[in-house]
Amino acid sequence: MTTAIICTAILSAMVFLLGFNVSRARGLASKAGGSQLPTDPTSPLLIAIRAHGNATEYVPTLIVLFLLVGARSPAAVAIPLIVGGTVARVLHAYNMLTTKRLWRATRRHYFSALGTYAFGVALAVALLFTL
Q1: Which domains does the chain possess?
Q2: Half-sphere exposure of 78 toward its Cβ, with a 13 Å CA cutoff?
Q3: What is the pTM of this model?
Q4: Which of 74, 88, 67, 81 is nearest to 4 (CA)?
Q5: 91 Cβ partners below 8 Å, 6+ apart?
Q6: DSSP character for 101?
Q7: In Å, what is the CA distance from 41 to each residue of 26, 65, 66, 94, 107?
């Protein structure tokens, strides 16, 4: 369960840091006279908004799964799934923030997104086996 709590803390902090990054990027765009609702896929503000939005789409569900699977499943099952899900989400946020443009995903984007899906489904299946 300690692993589940640590990984929950990591992802929770990441969501708030990504949110802070959006505020920072909005401030910079405002000072430069730029749009607060950018559509340019190379816009640092749009990239920050999408990185934060993407994290908030997946992290809450993963956190619930982490805590339930961590509390109810054997550690040999729970720990690799929880750590894998955390690594996938952190890498995905990093990949989004370091891209030069959102319209062209890289292999790193695909693999980190695929990791999110795979570990999320695996955690859900593991939870079913705790019944």
Answers
A1: 2-128 (1.20.120.550)
A2: 23
A3: 0.92
A4: 67
A5: 108, 111, 112, 115
A6: -
A7: 15, 32, 33, 17, 18
Candidates 89, 82, 81; CA nearest to 17 is 89
Q: Of 115, 88, 105, which is closest to residue 7 (Cα–Cα)?
A: 88
Buried/exposed 50-59: b ≥16 CB within 10 Å, e otherwise: bbbebbeebb
Per the CB < 8 A criterion, the answer to whether 4 and 70 are in contact is yes
Is the Cβ–Cβ distance between 69 and 127 less than 8 Å?
yes
Contact yes or no for 40/46 (Cβ under 8 A): yes
Q: Is 124 exposed, middle or buried (0-12, 13-18, 19+ CB in 10 A)?
A: middle
Residue type, 86: T
Q: What is the pLDDT of residues 59-118, one digit of tens each?
A: 999 999 999 999 999 999 999 999 999 999 999 999 999 988 777 778 888 999 999 999
